Amino acid sequence: MQKPTLYIISGLSFAGKTYLCNILVKKFGFETVDVDVTKENMYGKGLKDDDLTHEQWVKIYDATDKQIEKYLNDGKSVLDASRNFRKLERMNAKKIAERSGADFIIIYVKTPEDVVRQRWVENRRKQTRHDVEDNNFEEIINFFEPPSFDENPVILNYGDDIEKWIKDNL
Prior knowledge:
Blueprint: E1 5-10, H1 17-28, E2 31-33, H2 35-43, H3 54-73, E3 78-80, H4 87-99, E4 103-110, H5 113-126, H6 134-143, E5 154-157, H7 162-169
Parallel strand pairs: 1-3, 1-4, 2-3, 4-5
Helix pairs in contact: 2-3, 3-4
């Protein structure tokens, strides 16, 4: 039996992380975790990110991490495309994989800032996904740390053919 893998999909908000995640789930049947889903399960729908305290966010992240660990310990590969904006977050995820005896892969969805801004504005009109409030979006843009060379990321560049990329990289 193949070892389970924790796939961390990193990139700016609206870079295409969830889109890639959905394709990988359909293709490989991976499990997924999402801090926004955990937030809704714990505190209900319609709650804005800024309405939560730091302590509540810690509980949300802890619950999401426990779900990752459960999937991995059950022998299931799992995708997390909902956070991992900073290296410290990705290294925490790597520790979860190591504790579970799982493999660990970072996928960096590298999309230009002007494209993510266009998608963000478009989402305000269409509401096709969870909204990111103005101040939170700017914080993500400002503090995002792209995966570095030492993290050995697999990079999906904006405009790449996703099916070919999957065939070549996963």
